[in-house]
Design goal:
Glutamine Phosphoribosylpyrophosphate, subunit 1, domain 1, 15% strand, alpha+beta, 6-stranded antiparallel beta sheet, 44% helix
Amino acid sequence: MSPIERGSQVCGVAGLIGPPHRTTPLMRPMLDVITHRGPDDSGEFIGQDFAFGMRRLSIIDIAGGHQPMWIQGGRFGIVFNGEIYNFGELRTRLEDEGCRFETRSDTEVLLQLFAHRGFDNAATALSELRGMFAFCVVDVEARRMLIARDQFGIKPMYIATDSDGRRLSAFASEIKSILSDPVHPREVHWPALINYLSFQYNPLENTFFEGISKLPPGHFLDIDLHDRSFSRHRYFRYEFDAEPGDDAELSRASIREVLEDSVAHHVISDVPVGAFLSGGIDSAITVTLVQEQRRNAGVPPVQTFTIGFDEVSELAEAREVAEALGTDHHEIVISSDEYLSVLPAIAWAFDEPVADPSAVALYFLARAAREHVTVVLSGEGSDELFGGYRIYREPIDLDRVRTLPGGLGARIAKAALNVNRSFPGRNYLRRVMTPLRERFIGNAYVFRPDEVRRLLPRVGAQQHIVPADVLSLERPGFDDLPESRQMQLIDLEYWLRGDILAKADRMTMAHSLELRVPYLDVEVAKVSATLSDDLKYRDKTTKWILRRAFRGRVPATTEIRDKLGFPTPLKQWLARDPEAVMAPIRRSDFITKNMDTDYIEELLTQHVSGAADNSRRIFILLMLALWHEAFFLEAPVNV
């Protein structure tokens, strides 16, 4: 099957459950507000007890693929956002089982899969999919609907329920679509705010808006359209292999093979494809594989894009990789004024506050890339699957003391901490005595519980969630895993979906740019799950086996380079021009009414004087103020 036959649907979807007199006036506004997700086409359907529609960004089969799509005389219909990478294999299998197709699109393959397998076998059908997706498929005759999200949460899906949480009222790719319906009040969900202040993003299923939640990755909803009742089901969860392998040569070969295959699937497109290049090992491997495939096909070099600032950047490192591989490279440099000027648009694009400074760099990078390409590949997910964060190595370092015979290590650490003075190694010994649940909540931790209580006097005893405690209850065997693996699962369940993939989707779709993530392929995940910790954390480094798998194919200096990932000079900027940063915080009625403004001013004074680096704390408050302004006070921001 040739690439031209594939009907990719990267877009935004939305839907309502209810009679036509309710859904008809709302469907068009719900789609219009997410035009940025799909400027090329739109479609909608108003039925007896539901309505749904989509905005389409045409990637493949540009002339076709209109949605909603229907089969069997209009009995089964679908709105679909994403890519099904193994649709060719699925199509062949379904044809062998008697299915007949009218189009050459992966959308119809997806629809035929559920019509043929039956809605009662939805979990099995979803487990057959390799791709990124968020979709709604409906059986009009049975008055039954399924809403599903991909295994890792690459594509977003939000749902709204009645006040009792038992009946579904709406779904959409972005919260702002659901908010087009006035039945959903704009009321702040306080637990989301408390967690945001600690994590820099909201790790809860509940969003910042009461009554609106995220459909978790690897889940689907089964909705009865008679009464809008629904049940939720899990069909996927990442699990480590019970007996991880430690054969380095075999693992290197498996990694090379699966990533070569994944990238080959991810580059299929009828529009220009590029890649983000940060200078680290993850993007270098991706670009290497794309460039090798393009060279073998006799087509021009891949276009690569990187971003930097005057104060700090990875421009030189990315340029080294680009020159070694011969890519068509583009560099973008932005100033502090440019950075601050787009923050209101970013707050609007995110739907919920996300205070990741690198998201702003990604916003500019996507805007520049969209002038040249419609699709980009990026390296999200590699660190979580292959053990890329240096903090994952900490248990290895702590075990030097913790594993001393007879509990000697614990006694030494406890005795040393009773010494009432500072000395080299005191922090190390403190961490020896600190349980993982307290030592690690994910890759971002900003305001501690005591600081949140000071900042928000009204919260009382409420505190942020402790991911390790949640996973201990939800995942059998979690407590028995090595600490490094527990850390990986915490980041996969929280950090990856709540921050990394949220910014990847919103910052690129704000510019109608599709981002693909070849590391977050279920086949790649299967290989990563077989790797022992020894293969991930050798020679005082991280992702050891991933680096070794491509030795000789990426520049030697890139292979050993630590991760930076589009660093941002936020600390310097806040100290240089504090008034510009503080203006939205100071004018925010939400912050003034609910927070201790004297404490906020104290944080600023400490930062400007150099007494403390409070840049992340201040940035969290800045993005909160801009989010509240965008969604509660202002007209929609033009991104």
